[in-house]
Amino acid sequence: MASGPLETYSPSQTLERRHQQQKRKSFNEIDWARSDGRNFHQCRPAYLRTGATSSASGSAYAEFGSTKVIVSVFGPRESKKAMMYSDVGRLNCNVSYTTFSTSTRGQGSDNKDFSSMLQKALEGAIILETFPKTTVDIFALVLESAGGDLPIIISCASLALADAGIMMYDLVSAVSLSCFGKNLVIDPTSEEEACQDGSLMIAYMPIRNEVTQFTLTGEWSTAKINEAMELCLDACSKLSNILRSCLKENVLDFTD
Amino acid sequence: MVGLSAGEKQFMHGGIAQDLRSDGRQRLQFRPISIQTGVIPQANGSARVTLGATVVIASIKAELGKPAPLRPDKGKVVIFIDCSPTAGTMFEGRGGEELSSELSVGLQRCLLGGKSGAEAGAGIDLSSLVLAEGKICWDLYIDGLVISSDGNLLDALAAAIKVCRFIFLVRFEISSPWQVALSNTGIPKVSVIVEASAEDQLEVNVSDEEFLQFDTSGVPVIVTLTKVGRHYIADATSEEESQMSSAVSVSVNRHGRVCGLTKRGGAGLDPSVMLDMISVAKHASENLIAVLDSEIAAAEAAEDDGS
Amino acid sequence: MASTDGDRPESKLAAEIEVEAYRRLFPLPYYDRHLVESVRPDGRALGQARETTIAVGPVSSANGSALVKLGDTTMLAAIKLEVMTPSTKSPDEGSLAVDFYMPPICSPSIRPGRPADTAPVIAKQLSDAISSSGMINLKELSLVSGKAAWMAYLDIYCLNADGSLFDAALLSATAAFSHLQIPLVSLNDSGRVITISEEQKGKSVSEPLNKEIRKLAIKNTPFSLTCILHDKHILADPTSEEESVMDTHVTVVLDSKGRLVSSYKAGGSVLLSRSMIKNCMEIAKQRMEELGEILKESLSAMEID
């Protein structure tokens, strides 16, 4: 057994870096092929299931390419004693990573802001008035991280909320996009995310036509923001339909 | 939190609808800004920005460090914002921590272009901080302190960072431009003698005499538009912020390009309203940059007279 | 099945209230009445374990991984190999670090920031069971004597906690080790170990340290069974509800030859008699054979793929 902290390293790191530098060159060209054979405006295939964790009020599992996420929803249950009275419900979100989620062990945990981003993306969709004085806990665990983690967590969480029977105005679906020079690449993998010039993430309620969360990094012109938003909103609407059909299937299974 | 009576709320909403806010401003008008640079002598650069009743201090320190193994060609920038409990009771305990981290993340996104800072065209060019690839680089520690809070902290902090003049003197060529926040920062002259010694150690000479001023004009400003009722306003006070449904913070650089964007507040926004807000923020940023530029010029002139 | 029980006339109260309410209000009598009939609320016989499935290799970013479902209890184990300098005491041995996590998603009683009390206990038991059973020969993890060896990080995540966590965790660890593939590596000029990818295999300048991607020889796999003792009854493979109602737990770990590796009994109100120990061992032995079959099947299913 290991005694005390040992200096260890992942043997592949040096190679990976060289690999990444090569990749970077190819990204700058106008035309390049994505490693998984998708075209620039194509999302990864999504696999979604509700009811991954039986001990939770509601839960969902999402798999987009090799990004795998489980979200459990607990509650509504009594708020912590220290919390002040509130006539609307509270949300408590937490996102964590497994130690083996990334290629280098223990690197996934530096996304501390994901918890608050998740909360803000969902807050606007949940009818908080329906559970006053109580808290709904939304916990996410990223089993494997391979790009687009946050949007997948958000979509998966809204599915889990629906599974838990929490009242919502609409399902929130989220999609991210990377910008490489002139190209806009939707639903990037982590390899692509590491080399991107800019990124954009949208969480959207298609039926209400409302954006609940929007972040953007890198340098953008207005025209490009317009184009990117259109692409993302379209992808969000499609993803929302997939979420909906997943819920319907679940209900059909139940009645059978 | 600010407690407002129903009458006060109605007054505020009505005022905003008629383009005349409680303090006499128009919807997109900023409060008067004043700037003082070099407020912290031991930092490499520092500035105090007063925006109405909001007062913030930003300081930048530069230290020599080692680039991260996965990014040998990039320096590191650490942004930390502290909300002092003296600025308001809501900053005590966990509420302050949450706000601090929200502001830090917001600034990081707007100035560094994402967490990793890998993106090109971000506010601060990290590759200019490298002295010898994979061996030695500047680590910048940007600290912000909120002294008094009356809303719109993010914009004030970004402006303060922008006006810390940054002086950079190294023997290596530094090609990228910096802007005002970095306009009072002196980094000592450093020469690195790259020797393939057995221990792979670098010798670093630090000279205190020579400084090179670094142009910080590329650092973006942040304009936050707060949506109250059906309209949105710039530079909201904390009273107005208490009534917001959502807010969009847009960081814009001198060339009118959007460098980062964050949405705050839970309520959803129509995508077309969102785009509208971005273009309005872009327009407002031009004015803000002009004001900051003239303030810096004034501060510099005052400094020159003093010495 | 439970409803017929509730209709019995001998308890007035039981006849008056609904089964679900009776279950929540009087959990102990509820169980007692089941146990008298030698059946459990979920329809199992007393010594019967829940349905068990093993899927190997679900995590592509790890060197070896397995997902185990024991009823509703779900465990995900993954092994990552990293290179370390072996200690001077044992220069030709690798090392193994076992960790067990209960993230907040697995159970309503766990909140973020406050780790579960049981997690470190289970982690210790796991690492004891793995090392004392001699399942892994640490010499096999050596690369260059005194210079480099593999450090195997075994991380087990509980995705859904519904009782018998240790049994499921140990099974997932065993399955992950069976699936573990040691990658091809070679030494580079500066003495660091680097992996060789498939395309580089032929034209590699440096000699690979190992000839081919290989698996560990697993000599002796430990299997465990947790039982609950209640009066004279022995309930195998309890659910979390059963664990919370009845407080005496016995865990028996046997190796594939049926030898006792370890056993735990942490207090509880029921004291173990010698015959009861014997019975527990007997049930554990049956279960061990069952689990051995399931593991073999899942591994051969993977090889076909």
From TrEMBL, chain A:
Top-level taxon of the source organism: Eukaryota
The keyword Repeat is annotated on this UniProt entry: no
Coiled-coil regions listed: none
Places the protein is found: Cytoplasm; Nucleus
Pfam families: RNase_PH, RNase_PH_C
A single Gene Ontology CC term: nuclear exosome (RNase complex)
Disordered: annotated segments: 1-26
Major localization class: cytoplasm
SUPFAM superfamilies: Ribonuclease PH domain 2-like, Ribosomal protein S5 domain 2-like
GO annotation, biological process: nuclear mRNA surveillance; poly(A)-dependent snoRNA 3'-end processing; rRNA catabolic process; rRNA processing; U4 snRNA 3'-end processing
GO molecular function terms noted in the UniProt entry: RNA binding
Keyword Lipid metabolism: no
Domain named Exoribonuclease phosphorolytic: residues: 42-166, 170-231
InterPro entries: ExoRNase_PH_dom1 (IPR001247), ExoRNase_PH_dom2 (IPR015847), ExoRNase_PH_dom2_sf (IPR036345), PNPase/RNase_PH_dom_sf (IPR027408), Ribosomal_Su5_D2-typ_SF (IPR020568), RNase_PH (IPR050080)
Keywords: Cytoplasm, Exosome, Nucleus, RNA-binding, rRNA processing
UniProt similarity note: Belongs to the RNase PH family.
Name under which the protein is recorded: Uncharacterized protein
Organism from which the protein derives: Platanthera zijinensis
TrEMBL record, chain B:
Transmembrane segments: none
Keywords carried by this UniProt record: Cytoplasm, Exosome
Entry keyword Cytoplasm: yes
Subcellular location: Cytoplasm; Nucleus, Nucleolus
Main subcellular location of this protein, as a coarse class: cytoplasm
Cytoplasm keyword on record: yes
Signal peptide coordinates: none
GO cellular component annotations of the record: cytoplasmic exosome (RNase complex); nuclear exosome (RNase complex); nucleolus
Pfam family, one: RNase_PH
Domain Exoribonuclease phosphorolytic span(s) in chain numbering: 29-161, 218-282
Family named by the database record: Belongs to the RNase PH family.
Record's protein name: Ribosomal RNA-processing protein 42
Organism of provenance: Platanthera zijinensis
UniProtKB/TrEMBL annotation, chain C:
Exoribonuclease phosphorolytic domain ranges (all copies): 48-183, 222-286
Taxonomic superkingdom: Eukaryota
GO cellular component labels: cytoplasmic exosome (RNase complex); nuclear exosome (RNase complex); nucleolus
Predominant place of localization: cytoplasm
InterPro entries xrefs: ExoRNase_PH_dom1 (IPR001247), ExoRNase_PH_dom2 (IPR015847), ExoRNase_PH_dom2_sf (IPR036345), Exosome_comp_Rrp42_subfam (IPR050590), PNPase/RNase_PH_dom_sf (IPR027408), Ribosomal_Su5_D2-typ_SF (IPR020568), Rrp43 (IPR033196)
A GO MF label: mRNA 3'-UTR AU-rich region binding
Coiled coil stretches, renumbered: none
The keyword Cytoplasm appears for this protein: yes
Stated family: Belongs to the RNase PH family.
Name of the protein in its database record: Ribosomal RNA-processing protein 43
Organism: Platanthera zijinensis
